[in-house]
């Protein structure tokens, strides 16, 4: 199987474990981007009422439901059937919320472009060379992309200097069992290069660090935008139309 297919299976294991546990999490009273009680919260998304929004890697769906309650029309996509089932069970008829089980790239290829796409920690589980072209095409001109990405793990391992995946650990809650997953943990410069390469403009990067000194984990929150229009590029020199010199036009006289 591919790296991404392996990861989906691990998230299926995670989702099934959570269903078996029967743990009932409360609705969000604060929006976090990877580390509880840190970061800018929901305000980084701005006014969402009336927007067509995509939650990428939506999991239980609490973030998506929160935005729908604020007046957004939210599509929440997760590739894991178990995670999708958790969300369906919790939000069977939530106004403004549409839950979808699908590969992110496949969904983006078939869906109408969104005003806003966001992801809480899920983007690094997908190959950016596959995901980012679909994201760029899946955002309306002038629309935004907001996502958090692991920057330094709890062992202090910093971001990779190449666009390649590396193993990280997913631990099932309430257990001591570790599940290795592959993630693209990239430097800020690499993320910016990838975004620009696919026609997006990076607007801001916010560091989100662990509040405890014994935990070196750190995230970065990226906000990017698809320009209203792509600047025109000068035509190659050999294709430019030449202006006749004075007196040399064939129609003079």
CA-atom Rg in angstroms = 22 Å
Strand residues, percent:
25-35%
The end-to-end span amounts to 75 Å
Q: Given the C-alpha coordinates, what overall shape results?
A: globular
Oligomer: single chain
What is the overall pLDDT average?
89
Count of DSSP-assigned helices: 6
Strand and helix order:
HEHEHEHEHEEEHEE
Percent range of helical residues: 25-40%
Low-confidence stretches: 235-253
The largest pleated sheet is described as: 7 strands, mixed
Number of DSSP-assigned strands: 9
The class by helix and strand makeup works out as: alpha/beta
Across the major sheet, the strand order is: 3-2-1-4-5-9-8
Task: Itemize the secondary structure elements and their pairings.
Elements: H1 3-21, E1 52-56, H2 62-69, E2 73-78, H3 81-90, E3 97-101, H4 104-110, E4 114-120, H5 128-137, E5 139-152, E6 166-171, E7 178-183, H6 188-197, E8 201-209, E9 218-225
Parallel strand pairs: 1-2, 1-4, 2-3, 4-5
Antiparallel strand pairs: 5-9, 6-7, 8-9
Helix pairs in contact: 1-3, 4-5
Properties at a glance:
alpha/beta; 253 residues; seven-stranded mixed beta sheet; disordered C terminus; 26% strand
Put the structure in a nutshell:
25% of the residues lie in helices and 26% in strands. It has 253 residues and is an alpha/beta fold.
């Amino acid at each position: 199987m591919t790296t991404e297919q392996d990861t989906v299976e691990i998230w299926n294991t995670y989702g099934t474990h959570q269903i078996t546990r029967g743990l009932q999490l409360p609705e969000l009273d604060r929006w976090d981007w990877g580390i509880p009680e840190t970061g800018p919260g929901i305000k980084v998304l701005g006014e969402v009422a009336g927007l067509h929004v995509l939650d990428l890697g939506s999991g239980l769906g609490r973030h998506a439901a929160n935005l729908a309650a604020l007046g957004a029309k939210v599509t929440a996509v997760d590739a894991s059937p178990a995670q999708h089932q958790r969300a369906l069970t919790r939000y069977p008829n939530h106004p403004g919320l549409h839950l979808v089980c699908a590969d992110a790239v496949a969904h983006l290829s078939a869906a109408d472009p969104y005003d806003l796409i966001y992801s809480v920690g899920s983007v690094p589980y997908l190959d950016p060379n596959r995901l980012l072209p679909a994201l760029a095409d899946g955002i309306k001109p002038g629309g935004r992309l907001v996502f958090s990405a692991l920057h330094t793990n709890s062992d202090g391992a910093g971001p990779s200097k190449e666009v390649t995946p590396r193993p990280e650990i997913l631990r099932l809650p309430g257990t001591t069992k570790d599940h290795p997953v592959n993630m693209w943990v990239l430097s800020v410069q690499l993320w910016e290069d990838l975004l620009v390469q696919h026609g997006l403009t990076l607007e801001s990067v916010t560091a989100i660090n662990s509040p405890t000194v014994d935990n070196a984990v750190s995230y970065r929150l990226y906000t990017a935008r698809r320009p209203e229009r792509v600047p025109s590029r000068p035509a190659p020199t050999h294709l430019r139309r030449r202006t006749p010199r004075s007196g040399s036009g064939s129609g003079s006289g």
